[in-house]
Structures are given as C-alpha cells and as structure tokens.
Amino acid sequence: MKFERVLIIRDKTRLEQLIERFNSKAQAKFYIESSGGNFEFFEEEHTTFYEALSKIKTTVNPFFKYKVIHRSFLPTYIFTAQDLVVVIGQDGLVANTAKYVNGLPIIGINPDLERYDGILLKHSVNDFHYLLKAVTKERYTIQQVTMAKATLNNGQVLLAFNDFYIGADSHVSSRYTISYNGQKEAQSSSGIIVSTGAGSTGWLSSVFNMANNISTYYHHQQNDKTILDWTDDQLIFVVREPFMSKVSQTGIGVGTITGKQKLKIESSMPAHGIIFSDGIEADFLNFNSGSTVEITIAEEKANLVVRG
C-alpha cells in the first residue's frame, strides 16, 4: 500500500484539560496544589508529550505531508486509503481511533514510557524513524485485532475495539429482553459487557475477578480461562449482577459470540438506555424502549503496525 500522507492523532494533555476547566493555568495550579496535588506532574507530562509530538513531526516531514487531528474530530473525519495513521498518546486513543479508520494501518507511539503502559502503543519515539522508513518500503508487519459490532434495528452501527456496555446510563437497573443460543428472557441487571480479545484483560477481567472471588470464597474454585487472543474471531458477553424477580430471570449470564452465534437485546427502558464502546461515553447509541440491538463480530479489523 502506497501512502501519501500521515495523519497524527492526538488528544489534549491533562494539563490542557485542567486549563480548559479552570480557565487559566494559574487557577488550575491553585486548585491542584490547594487540594494537596502535585501540579508539576501535569506540567512534566505536558512537556514530555509536546517534545515527543515535535519529534514525530520532524521525523515525518522528509517522507510525507502530515496533518495533526484531535481526538474529537475522529467521528466526522474522512480517511482515505492513502493515509497512514500515527497515534500518539495513551492506549485508549488507539482503541478509539481504530473504530473510525476503516482498517488503515495504525502506528501507536508511546510518548511517555515512564507514565504509560503502552499495551497498544507498540513503539517509542526513538523507534519511529526506522519504522517509517520500513513503511515507505512496504516492509512492515501488521497485527490484526478483532472488533465488535452493534447494529440497531434503525440501522445505526457502532464498533468497539475493547468492549461494549449495554444498559442504563446511571446506577439504576437496566431492563431488557435478551436472546441467545435459542433462549430468550427478560432481565434486570447492572448492564451487559461484551468484550473483544483486546478488551478481555480490561473491564471483562474485573467482572470475572469479582465472580472468581465470590466463587473461591464459597466453593474454593477459580476459573482463569477468561482471556482471548486478540485475533480470535469471538467475543464474550457477561450480564452484570442479574436480579431475580417476578418479571426478570437470570438464566442467561455469560456466553461466546462467534460468526454463527449472535446476541440480541431488546430494550425495556423508557429513557436513559445507552450502548457505548471502549469506556468512552461520548461514543454511544441511544437504547430505549422499541430499540433492538444485534451484537456480532465486526467485518472490519483493526490493523496495528507491530514492526518494520
């Protein structure tokens, strides 16, 4: 694939978000320090990020034209087949970007090795020059990542790199009818989590940790088989804290979604029902009474550049 342009995806630093919240750096500093916080942490993180961003621009310039895009523009930006996507920030930005780039290769750059785990940020700023040269010669390796897809009965679609949450948008009971593997029942719960392989070490693992702790306490058993490979064409769903009542059941609690096995959910919530992906509540679909969603494996794959 011949690339003509590099799109550098970034988010606001935490310092920039604080300044936005408090209207000035001085006011932000006063608030953080008066609360006993360390304002220098935010300043150092900000400086490190911009130094890394500057190096990325300098490295790209001899090879390609480039454009910097803020995270907030991802849902509306039109990507082309000639775009090489470079994400610089935290891991969550890679997950958020993958849903909008239509399978374009993504290079994840960790700008701050001391602060960020970088599970999805496979490369450092110092690696980038070598990697970019390899990409120009079309000598690079892609790791494909399976994503999830939610399709509403009105045609709206949302993708997830890590997971979906399906339920109420607050701490009230989520009410819906769930259909899976030939069974159908009304439920009341804390919502449903649907996880990809990439997300199986995140929110899903915390749900299983809770269940394992309870199981171990009462039955002295533990199930560790909750992690999928990123390339597995399957998803796992879990119903959180299902409640048994005269009108709600608990028979469907966990299952695997494959190419043949799908999950269908019909909302019984008159208001405040949502579906959001990857922990980002701004990426959501309304899911109120009259709405039905089908959860499947997405046709699109996220393509992460892992080495040159």
Write the topology of this structure.
Layout: E1 5-10, H1 14-22, H2 25-34, H3 39-60, E2 65-70, E3 83-88, H4 91-98, E4 105-110, E5 123-124, H5 128-136, E6 141-152, E7 157-160, E8 163-168, E9 174-180, E10 183-189, E11 192-195, H6 203-219, E12 235-239, E13 254-257, E14 263-267, E15 273-277, E16 280-286, E17 292-307
Parallel strand pairs: 1-2, 1-3, 3-4, 4-5, 4-17
Antiparallel strand pairs: 6-7, 6-17, 8-11, 8-15, 9-10, 9-14, 11-12, 12-13, 14-17, 15-16
Helix pairs in contact: 1-2
Task: Give a verbal description of the structure.
The protein is an alpha/beta fold. The chain folds into two domains: 5-139, Rossmann fold; 148-298, Probable inorganic polyphosphate/atp-NAD kinase, domain 2 (Tumour Suppressor Smad4), CATH 2.60.200.30. The chain contains six helices and 17 strands. The protein has helices at 14-22, 25-34, 39-60, 91-98, 128-136, 203-219; strands at 5-10, 65-70, 83-88, 105-110, 123-124, 141-152, 157-160, 163-168, 174-180, 183-189, 192-195, 235-239, 254-257, 263-267, 273-277, 280-286, 292-307. The strands form two sheets. Strands 1, 2, 3, 4, 5, 6, 7, 9, 10, 14 and 17 form an eleven-stranded mixed β-sheet that branches. Helix 1 (14-22) packs across helix 2. The mean pLDDT is 90.
